[in-house]
Amino acid sequence: MSKMLKKSLLWPFAVVAAIGFLSMGCSSNGEFGSSSDAAEKVYVAPGEHDEFYGFFSGGYNGQLGVYGLPSGRHIFTIPVFSQAAVNGWGYNEETKPMFQTSDGFVPWGDAHHPELSQTNGETDGRWVFINENNTPRIARIGLDEFRTQEIIEIPNSAGNHASSFVTPNTEYVTAATRFSVPMDEDNLQNMDVSIDSYKDNFQGTISFIKVSDEGHMNIDFQIRMPGFNYDLSHSGKGPSDGWAFFTSYNSEEAHTMLEINASKNDKDYIAAINWEKAAEYAANGEGKMIPGEHYRNYIDHEEGGVAKSELIEEVRVLDPRELDGLVYFLPTPKSPHGVDVDPSGRYIAAGGKLSTVIPVHSFDKMMTAIENEDFEGEEQGIPVLNYESILHGEVENPGLGPLHTEFDDKGNAYTTAFISSEIVKWDVETLEVVDRIDVYYSPGHLMIPGGDSQNPDGKYLVALNKITKDRYLPTGPEMFHSAQLIDISGEKMQLLLDFPTEGEPHYAQGIAAEKVKENQKRFYEIEGNNHPHAAKSEKETRVERDGNEVHVYMTTIRSHFAPDNIEGIKVGDEVYFHVTNLEQDWDVPHGFAMKGANNAELLIMPGETMTLKWEPKKVGVFPFYCTDFCSALHQEMQGYVRVSSEDSDVEVSYSTGQS
Amino acid sequence: MKISKIVGLMTVTILLLIGCEGGSDTNTEATANKEVEQELTEFEMTNGIGPVNEEITIDEIDPELAKEGMQVFDMKCGACHKMDSRYVGPPLGGIMNTRTPAYVMNMILNPEEMLEKHPIAKSVGSEYPTRMTNQQLTREKARAVVEYLAQESQ
Amino acid sequence: MDTKKRISMGVAALILIGVYFVPIWSISMDAPQYPEGIGMNITVDNIQGKEKNDLQNINGLNHYIGMKEINPDSIPELKIMPFIFGFLIISGVVIAIVGDRKWILFWLGIFVLLAIAGLVDFYIWGYDYGHNLNPDAPIKVPGMTYQPPLLGSKQLLNINATSLPHIGFYISLLSMGIAGTVWWKSKED
């Protein structure tokens, strides 16, 4: 009886436990089970080379990362917009001028979009351009030496995001204001006005930077634009060559809480710019020259690789309200981010980041609408084309938060969906989604080698993800960003590899290694060293005093400095160590580090000269040494500088090898 | 029939074994190669190993060429070699009295192989802690350096 | 009613004290960008993230699509619920002491009605929360609403939301079960 009762009073436990157990659903998280097949595809055997160079912007580290694909190996980092203590970029006397701007010396930058130079719509391996978003600049990196060779500042601009995209023959590189700022009507000078006068005073500009055959950049013209935010850009190609497209958002012209106030309009605009016509206008002296101080800094190879800064006072500005056929607005839903032109040059896909479709405009229809003056209206003097008339169609269900699109060689487009964390593959003609793949996590840009050119390589795609979280061994709160390599050679996308990338890569570009590999300098010819302070042999080494400036002409070779004993330096002197590396062999840099110098080191490649400025503050004997393990006797590669008091009468003297 | 099959099978097996053997251990192969030191020809003993494979004679010093040689020497060689004293490398004051022009040119143009294979270069090299580097001279420039060294050796 | 049944009834009432210490219901969300999951637990007097900042992150996500912020302080039900359970515990203990079978049924009836009312209320809250969207939301998906499921899973855009009872609810079920059993077994008394 009592047993019965016990049993009967216990059954609710059993029932409840059963219900609880049944309702415990298990959720799967779509982890990719790495297969040996994927491993084989990304394996590059020791001593073998990768198939592609990948140039990944470093984002807030200001530099350009170089990665091998498909292995994902980080091969190199090219210093661009940020000082790099690792090799003295921006610290040594030769490169300091590269950081000159109208705001003075700016030691940091935010590098976003690398873009390879193109010839006939194809990447040619000569240069990589990259924009700086914070203090508007564009840099050109030479792929013969993987070094930044030129940096030009963009005036009348605040935030340079829609940059640095090239035209099919690298005639121009683009730039635009991400943030409109108050600029007066006559000469676009900064104004001291209340921020809430935004609608009255704030304007934007779009800039076209001419690139010469040698790569020299100069601002050919700027176009005055309404005070929106200009976000990204791509040039037309093939039939649409001669045009460039810029997305804009904040057509609401909000100046506070943009996340709400700039997300109200159902449509913003893509600005279609007839740059060919603009160039004609500029060549004919149309528009007007207005003040626009900006610096062009370049490494002068004629003068020993010493950087020079040139101040340019004026720019030509074209006004679309006065010049016909310069700019048209294409209405595009909703706060579009990326704008990408397919390889045929016929379609313009926009990543309407808050839109639930991907609108694709047709270039042919756009031209017809322009011809028939098929306008919805105008926006601050710029004609707005009729959305229905220019639309090729909308991609339905493209994932949430579509941002950027690149293309393969088989008529497919690939779009990142930031919010739904996936990449969606769709057919450019039929606009049908044909495949999708989850990426981890929240992709921004994506990259297919040649994916924004007329000749994409349809083998690999790299997703550049904005959130890393649990993808690698944890490194505290701050982590490298994650990239993922996806095989796009087949019908279905296949995830092959995760690899970490330094800084915050926004965009990347890839190019077949063959196009770049063969043109590499291995060292600089010592005979060709025309640095004004070079010592091209030990015979030329010396120390010269000129007032309180002391110039040390020094050489390095495995494994000694000449001179390596220096006396007669005084507290308060400005000492310049001009160090020439006499080696003529691949991969034998020497370093130069000075105890207590308020500076970085020098890292001197074979055959070149670099200069470190040192201002000794204490009396004593200070060692210097080579930082790059150059030979078995690297630890012996050192020297001493004797620093005497300001009023001492120790004469300058120097020697090597005398005991 | 049967016999041929067996022979065939054996051949295949042996081939496979050899194949495995071949791909097995590159390290042993490398060391084996090192041990088999190639015999140098008499010419190589006298004139060194490298791109210069014919005798070169200097009858009369060409002062123009020697001057050019001096400039090259200062730039590419002077950081390690003095004429009269031991420095990073050996002194070169009387070098042309003990070595042939071709030997010196091969030493300049092909130091890696010379230091590895030539007994004379090896023994001199062993007295100096720093190995001679290849300074990427053209043959013409090496020839000019030899002219200068010949002038200095007189 | 014999002592054993009274004790059982007392147990049925007293185990409800556990409800104050564990969640009653939970909503969890799975999305590719949240590998470790993200979710919230509803307790007797609060709504909490499963992890420290989950609620903040959920509110952060929701504001893009214009959903109201989940603020426990502004949900009156959470103020009342502790008292409801308090009433059930005290009345249950009193009934156990008195030992009147009729009252057990009455207590059970109130309990079940309160539970149903709670679920209905939860559904209405979810409906309002998922339908009543801010017209100024940055992302507007035509025809899309975001009502979380009452029980089970539902795909909301790329997030799979799963709503399930938690231990507190099972304790309540257990309590009802024990009380029901006591009532059933005592009919021969």
UniProtKB/TrEMBL annotation, chain A:
> Which gene does this sequence derive from?
nosZ
Its localization reads: Cell envelope
Q: Which Gene3D superfamilies match?
A: Cupredoxins - blue copper proteins, YVTN repeat-like/Quinoprotein amine dehydrogenase
- Keyword annotations of the record: Copper, Metal-binding, Oxidoreductase, Signal
Q: What class of enzyme is it?
A: oxidoreductase
EC id: 1.7.2.4
Highest taxon listed in the record's lineage: Bacteria
Protein name as annotated: Sec-dependent nitrous-oxide reductase
A GO MF term = nitrous-oxide reductase activity
Q: Name one Pfam family in it.
A: nos_propeller
Renumbered to this chain, the signal peptide range is: 1-17
Automatic annotation (TrEMBL), chain B:
SUPFAM superfamilies linked to this entry: Cytochrome c
Cytochrome c domain ranges (all copies): 64-153
**InterPro entries, A to Z:** Cyt_c-like_dom (IPR009056), Cyt_c-like_dom_sf (IPR036909)
Pfam families named in the record: Cytochrom_C (PF00034)
Q: Which UniProt keywords apply?
A: Heme, Iron, Metal-binding
**What is the protein name given in its UniProt record?**
Cytochrome c
TrEMBL record, chain C:
Alphabetically sorted, this entry's keywords are:
Membrane, Transmembrane, Transmembrane helix
- Protein name, per record: Copper chaperone NosL
Q: Which organism is it from?
A: Fodinibius salicampi
Give me the segments passing through the membrane.
7-27, 80-98, 105-125, 167-184
